[in-house]
Amino acid sequence: MAKSTVTLASVALRQENNLHSSSIGALAGARVRIECQDRETLQLKYNVEGVTDSTGTYQIKVEDDHQDQLCYATLVSSPVANCRTADRGRSRAEVILTRNNGAISDLHFANSLGYLREEPLSGCAELLKQLLESDE
């Protein structure tokens, strides 16, 4: 039985408005799920969850080889009350979970995922004003 470890660079807390987006820190305690679906039927075949550490990083042990499946790292929940909206385009990332593609490592990486804050940080209004002025 093959075992793989999926590691994500980070799950980030982000501040975003229509013109500007920036990472404002790692998100500890976020729940992340690895889901694998059948390529043809899209039926869920495997899932396992993990939690991010103080650096916003997680490692999840994955059982078996998932060569014939579509696998994703997916955001499940945020522990921060005003930061529970997944960043569109960063709510899940594809992960290849097989050794039958030439990879010799059991360590696999997913792209970073993130949540958006509901309310702007102090200073965002001034930054937005400066950005708009520089476009004129």
TrEMBL record:
**Domain of life, per lineage:** Eukaryota
Q: Which keywords, in A-to-Z order, does the entry hold? A: Disulfide bond
- Identify the Pfam families for this entry: Pollen_Ole_e_1 (PF01190)
Family indicated by similarity: Belongs to the Ole e I family.
- The name of this protein is Pollen Ole e 1 allergen and extensin family protein
Q: Taxonomically, what lineage is the organism? A: Eukaryota, Viridiplantae, Streptophyta, Embryophyta, Tracheophyta
